[in-house]
Amino acid sequence: MQQTSFSGEHPNALVFCADENVLPYALFAASHAATLNPNRNFDILICSLTPLTLSDHFRDLGIIPAHLDLGDHMRAQNLTVKRLTLTSYLRLWLPEQFADVYERILYVDTDTDIVDRNLSDFSRLDLGTHAIGGVRDIAQWTNINRPIHEFDIRKMPGGAYLNAGVLLIDLEEYNRRDFLNRMLETNRTMAPFIHNDQSLINLTLRHEWAELHPNWNWQALRLYRRFSELAAPRVMHYVGPRKPYDAHNSQKYYPQDLLAHYATFLTTHFPEVARPSLIPNAFLIRKFRALSHTIKARRTSAALMPLLNRFENDLEVLQ
User: Fold this and answer.
1) Over the stretch 88-128, which tens digit does the pLDDT of each residue have?
2) In the chain, where are the structural domains located?
3) 12-215 in CATH: which number?
4) Contact of 48 with 54, CB cutoff 8 Å
5) Is the pTM of this model over 0.85?
6) Cα–Cα distance for residue pair 105/276, rounded to 1 Å
7) Where are the beta strands (DSSP E) in 186-231?
8) Which bin fits 159, alpha (ψ -120 to 50), beta or left (φ > 0)?
9) To which H or E segment does residue 196 belong?
10) Cα separation of 13 and 315, whole Å?
11) Which residue, 274, 278, 234, is CA-closest to 32?
């Protein structure tokens, strides 16, 4: 298959895969990555299956649209989509498409935010002999040995379960191990899947990935808000069906300032897109929620420590 003719400025890249529907949220996170990391050693790409148009504002920040014309090829693979789109699988083709462009890609979902001023550190993470680094799914955060249904129903031994929303990829090693074709074979023999691309990746790779510190894919904000404030995450991942940019029903689940940031961004750059509303009695809600989360944090902080204490710091990688 023909590779992209894209030419990069840096040896590494931060990559989002988006279509028109989620482009505003990808650009929210990409903009933060760009402004917080002016001296970065990575490009920032928005990859898509159809051409996307970015305004001068985002191009001036160094955010680059990259159209990968793979739609017909990917549809022919009969990938499990369900409520997601085909674009969610595009991450699997990134190492093939950018093999001659980048050494490493940090792939990040669009329901994230980059809050790290030192994101270039991802180039320092030691993956050892592995092609992929990632963080355990939140299902195993309070019990790293919790059984995973995807494995159990196929009578496969249990183990660490990767959250596919943030992936650190060594492109040369990924391609050398033929991971793409291996995952397509898994799709042919094991589909359908519960968690789409995440299931496909986990069922194929199993023990062939390195575990990163949870700070690189912090999935705990909504559940463990108080604990999250102490954790110093680098990438926030708003897992679950409720997102902070939802126009409705997000007020109860996320901090008011986060909702306000999304509302301001969408109003400024995408006024046609529905944005979270900020209700008048938010202060009282915050007070009540703060008390509730403080009580819960006292219980959950101890439960999360076995997960975190396996790392000296968030630059350590477990092989």
Assistant:
1) 999 999 999 999 999 999 999 999 999 999 999 999 999 99
2) 12-215
3) 3.90.550.10
4) no
5) yes
6) 31
7) 210-211
8) left
9) helix 196-205
10) 18
11) 234
